[in-house]
């Protein structure tokens, strides 16, 4: 069909550390990413995994799934994570070989309440995507099999829908409970692959409008700390220059 591209679709998997992003991706492409990687999350970068879906039907669909680093309280700052994501998303937008089709946002149903970092991440996530992409987003609750009482999960699910997810749902986001199966992971991804490609708000702002990260919708709330981060980087460079100069003086 005219206008439809032959490019492989890309899906981002997002959510704070430990919600099951890597687990979800391994359901689609077994053993491609490391699960439970908390201790090494400081070195984690967005990682693209390609998978082929729908073997049985005879229609194979290739997809690029991205495992993204999420906020966590211990190992990396929110600014680091946003900077990491923004680099990846800009590069994909400018040079990428894939069409971004959607985002899968994971939330652990075993969490009694939304923690500070989970809430900050969720807000950053919404700003980074922009409302125009909400119809390409599936909000997924994970780890239902870890609950001792399913009714507790059902109540939390309702709370999430009422207090946090209703605005996105009204604007077209889907909400679903993940049972941990390959089949469901595949059907969530296939559903998103059928949609029109999107450009995220952050990609528009960074690439099309040339804004610095701290002036983007996602970056603004972190502006003070992003600035401090930049200042630190500048001071580091100055120190490096100083010591190089010193070195030369001593040598010369
Ligand atoms: N029982 C169960 N364990 C899960 C599920 N999702 C993730 N896990 C486990 O929870 C831990 C954290 O998941 P992981 O995928 O590494 O989270 P990530 O930080 O979001 O990538 C790992 O040990 C996973 O194997 C699930 O739906 N059910
Ligand atoms: Mg992971």
Automatic annotation (TrEMBL):
Record-linked InterPro entries: G_AIG1, P-loop_NTPase
GO MF terms held by the record: GTP binding; hydrolase activity
Residue span, AIG1-type G domain: 11-151
Sorted UniProt keywords: Hydrolase, Nucleotide-binding
SUPFAM superfamilies in alphabetical order: P-loop containing nucleoside triphosphate hydrolases (SSF52540)
Protein name: P-loop containing nucleoside triphosphate hydrolase protein
Higher taxonomy: Eukaryota, Fungi, Dikarya, Ascomycota, Pezizomycotina
Keyword Nucleotide-binding: yes
Cell membrane keyword on record: no
Organism name: Amniculicola lignicola CBS 123094
């Amino acid at each position: 069909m005219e206008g439809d591209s032959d490019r492989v679709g890309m899906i981002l998997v997002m959510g704070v550390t430990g919600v099951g992003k890597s687990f979800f991706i391994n359901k689609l492409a077994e053993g491609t990413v490391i699960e439970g990687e908390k201790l090494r999350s400081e070195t984690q970068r967005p990682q693209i995994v390609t998978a082929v879906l729908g073997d049985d039907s005879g229609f194979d669909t290739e997809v690029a799934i991205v495992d993204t680093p999420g906020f966590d309280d211990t190992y990396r700052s929110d600014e680091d994570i946003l900077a990491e994501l923004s680099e990846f998303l800009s590069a994909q937008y400018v040079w990428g070989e894939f069409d971004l089709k959607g985002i899968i946002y994971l939330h652990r149903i075993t969490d009694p309440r939304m923690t500070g970092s989970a809430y900050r991440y969720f807000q950053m996530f919404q700003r980074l995507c922009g409302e125009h992409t909400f119809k390409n987003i599936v909000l997924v609750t994970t780890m239902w099999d870890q609950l001792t009482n399913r009714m507790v999960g059902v109540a939390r699910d309702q709370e999430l829908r009422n207090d946090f997810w209703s605005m996105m749902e009204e604007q077209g986001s889907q909400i679903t409970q993940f049972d941990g199966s390959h089949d469901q992971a595949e059907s969530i991804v296939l559903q998103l692959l059928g949609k029109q490609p999107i450009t995220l708000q952050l990609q528009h702002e960074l690439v099309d409008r040339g804004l610095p990260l701290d002036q983007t919708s996602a970056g603004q709330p972190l502006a003070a700390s992003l600035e401090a981060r930049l200042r630190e980087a500048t001071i580091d460079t100055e120190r490096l220059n100083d010591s190089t100069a010193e070195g030369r003086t001593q040598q010369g």
